[in-house]
Amino acid sequence: MKYTVHRALAMLKTTKARIERELADECIMWARVARGNEDLISGVAVKDIERDIQSHYDRITALIENYTKIKSAVIKSNAGVAEEAELRRTSVCGKLLTVAEIIEMQDTIYGRAKKPGFKSKLLAKMKDDFAKAQMDFDDMQEKADEEVNQYIRSLAGKKRDEDETYAGTKSLIEATSKMLHEQKDPRLIDPLKIANKINALENEIENFRTEADAILSEQNALSTIELDLAEVK
Fold first, then answer.
1. Each residue of 142-178: pLDDT tens digit?
2. What is the Cα–Cα distance from 176 to 154, expressed in whole angstroms?
3. Which of 39, 59, 67, 219 is the most buried (most CB within 10 A)?
4. Taking the model in full, what pTM does it have?
5. Is residue 226 domain-resident?
6. Rounded distance, CA 230 to CA 14, Å?
7. Residue 70 sits in which domain range?
8. Residues contacting 41, CB < 8 A, separation 6+
9. Is 222 part of any domain?
10. Residue 179 in domain
């Protein structure tokens, strides 16, 4: 589908704004923790939370992909390059890109050391949310273990007072402990398998930055430009 450059520039602006809003959305956490077999977290159904996490991820990744495509087309148009023209491209992480596209992806998509891009911001939020979820999981597990242990100690003392047989008491305690742990132990709500997403995104960002830096250095060292400079007296 064809668009005017004026329309494409407007689309770039709105797409970037949408990406920034999605990345800044504090209502969505990439991983959550539920208690036992409960189906609600803060009054929201787990299935709805899982659906929202997946939709959020799909939306962000699609927006970033669209931004990249639009920006690439605008760069070529601004350079006066026809769609069918042969361009000097270099392979970066399996993608054929012009130098201008590499620089744009460094600046906006992947970011630099002190200037985060869309994907580095996404990575930071994923890592932060996952760390918080793990802390919540550990805290909830500690509380669940203490609650179960207190109940089991109380039950064991009661059965001793009732002069129950050891075998019967042991069997009852094991069954009760299993049931209570199923009710109280935390479970991670993680439809994206977020640890895998984090690892993949870390590798993608690191590989692109490394290859892009090397290629740009090579291009600057080997490429020549024609200049007709005025004489300065």
1. 999 999 999 888 887 776 656 655 566 778 888 898 9
2. 12
3. 67
4. 0.85
5. no
6. 43
7. 5-132+191-214
8. 32, 33, 34, 49, 189
9. no
10. no
